[in-house]
Amino acid sequence: MVERGTRAPCRYFRLGSGSIPALVFAAGAVALWSTNALVGKSLLATHPVSQVQFLQFAGAALVFALIRFLGREAARPVAGRAAFAPLAVGFIGLVGTMVLQYVAFASMPVIEANLVAYTWPLMVAAAVIAFENPRRPGLLGLAAALGFGGVALVISGGRESNWFQGDLVGYFAAFGSALCMAFYSVVVGRLAMSPDRLLLPSSLIGVVLTFLWSAREGVAWPVGVDLALGLYLGAGPMGLGYYFWSRALKLERGGKVAVVAYLTPIASTLLLTLSGERLTATAIAGAVLVIGSCIAVGLEHSEAQDHV
């Protein structure tokens, strides 16, 4: 038992209603998301974005449909404007995030695109400062500013010639992906609709759009290992990853799961480094700022919710 005035070592993960299941779901999402950039990099080396994305959305749609089929929750009919809002949230969060992220992967160094795309926690912090009443807005603002400064260092990479070594579209796509994920993470916990009902229509829309996109390019389809890896990206990081994350946010809106989510850029960057990707010393300093700022923002938000 902890005496009054003494902080428990694990104060950010105190047991509470929904806390343990939420952390388990969040950890599962992080584990799957951490493999996304590495597997995506290997497929994009030999296949266009459109094909990889089609396989992803197909795999995700199968997962969401299976979860929906096995679920016991009775579906309540929703129509009109009430149905449009969840559909828009799912489309922006799933289709927007993933398509823009893979455009970035194909247009710039994957390890840099991955770090920029995972600035969405900093964008959430900016939203908190702008629209809520945080206990320490100055600290949140400083952490977010340092994080975006780190992004600038990652983009520059310490190169002498110029900053933008990849296609400029890639950098905008990476930031756009982060914006979409930040929006989804802020809004999804406030929706009454279950994650599978929210994400299944969006994944089906993604299947149709990416099929038309890939058919227009008219190249050979992946087979064998590449086909399996593409479906894994859909069933794993996209399908179960989004489902686990959405469940975690619904179970625990107190901010504790956010701390777990910030482990994703650490794990994914480590896997990319082990696969041969390299960052310059300047970009490494930027990565440390990005990751450290994300953790600081998550801990501050969690502490604020505990105080409330």
Automatic annotation (TrEMBL):
Short name of one Pfam family:
EamA
The keyword Nucleus belongs to this UniProt entry's keyword annotation: no
Membrane topology recorded in Swiss-Prot or TrEMBL: Multi-pass membrane protein
Record localization: Cell membrane
Q: Which InterPro entries match?
A: Diverse_Substrate_Transporter, EamA_dom, EmrE-like
User: What cellular-component terms does GO give this entry?
Assistant: plasma membrane
Q: Give yes or no: UniProt keyword Disulfide bond.
A: no
Where in the numbering of this chain does the EamA domain appear?
Answer: 22-155, 169-297
The membrane spanning regions, by residue number, are 12-34, 54-71, 83-103, 115-131, 138-156, 168-186, 198-215, 227-245, 257-275, 281-299
Entry keyword set? Cell membrane, Membrane, Transmembrane, Transmembrane helix
Q: Which PANTHER family match?
A: EAMA DOMAIN-CONTAINING PROTEIN, OS03G0707200 PROTEIN-RELATED
Q: What name does this protein carry?
A: DMT family transporter
Q: Specify the species.
A: Mesorhizobium erdmanii
